[in-house]
Task: structure prediction
Amino acid sequence: MRRFIRRAILTLLLTLGAAFTIAATWIPVKAQVAQILLVRAWDRTRAGAANAKPWPWADTWPVGRLRVPRLGVDEIVLAGASGGSLAFAPGHLDGTALPGACGNCVLSGHRDTHFRFLSKLRLGDVLELEAPDGRVQRFAVTSTHILRHADMFVLDDETASVLILTTCYPFDAVVPGGPLRFVVRAEPVAE
Result:
């Protein structure tokens, strides 16, 4: 009887351990697979496919690629800044200039994932924004601001090409969202 109880307890503990391990690794594994699918969708976009969805049920598609050479950042940028797209990559804010177009291009991302690197940016850092046609625009960080969500005047339309990156602030906050935004402004680098 004691042997049966020991085996039952051991089986229960092993089963619980396996369940907790699967639960803990599911989201990181899903995120890694999503990144592979995003790169494939970007490759299809670069080859001329319109709205190349990374997976069949996706409501977004790649519109650009953001690189920060000094920090080793390389992110696919998705259409729209909804929660569904921001879960997987930075998003392009609807109504602003698309990557490669002239105007104010605004990209948004989560402070604890894809835009975590914003906390490490310095004035003068170079940001590269690749458009689907392969053109790469280079921008230099000219300023950073901490603004209330309601005071996002930096998103106003401009005639010059400007890149704005925005995320929630502070970076180490436990509660998601909040009233503050960290905003990076970058202006074109003369070639």
Summary: The two ends are 80 Å apart (CA to CA). The chain has a mean pLDDT of 89.
